Amino acid sequence: MSAVRQEVTAYEEPRALAPAQSQSEAGALVSMIERAARDPNVDIDKMERLLQMQERVLARTAREAFNVAFAEMQSDLPEIREKGRGDKNTTFALWEDVNEAIKPVLKDHGFGLSFKTGRTNDRITVTAILLHRAGHSEETTLELPVDTSGSKNAVQAVGSSTSYGKRYTAMALLNLTSRLKADRDDDGRGAGAPTVSEDQIADLADLIESVGANLTRFLAFMGVGSLAEIPAARFEHAVRELKKKERR
After folding, report:
1. How far is 123 from 213, CA to CA, in rounded Å?
2. Are residues 99 and 171 in the same domain?
3. pTM for the structure as a whole
4. For the chain, percent of residues with pLDDT exceeding 90
5. What is the CATH number of the domain that holds 94?
């Protein structure tokens, strides 16, 4: 058995490895392919098998990097305020608010979010695609009727359904939650709850500066408009979240 054939056999059953090991394995496979390409005794069939193995290893490495980054991102994703009003006074998070809140967090963790839309007769399909910089992506699709409620014209009806689809597919992919600001009284965050003191505000401001956090993003994450609006009961939580950024 040739050296090249032995190496091919060794990679025919990829193992579940840690991300760093996968990176090392991918690099070793690239080096092997380069050596095989310079060997006149290696036929096209063997080269094709090596390239197929490389694709599998790279795909696995990208998926592992996606999973690690996604897990780390979860604690940074904010709770979205429900500012939209629907039928029977129901509330929902507007897509504009969802998009504004998640874009900086996605960027910080190497993710991008895009959408594909389609239409068949009176049905709209929206597919959300969450792509990581390592190359792996996950997606989910929602099919829904054209929203003809109210006095919408044909274009507005399609736009409304598309916005709805973006909102719910994005929230499903990212495991986002939304809540009315008035519903925060179950954990000391209601309108009548005491807010942080001036000393605590100063401490948070100093910590934000020292860890290099973005104030606007932090306020959005906490669901408030200013540091002074942070409930006193959530002060320790705010400190912990900022210190997580310092450790990273």
Report:
1. 43
2. yes
3. 0.60
4. 26
5. 3.30.160
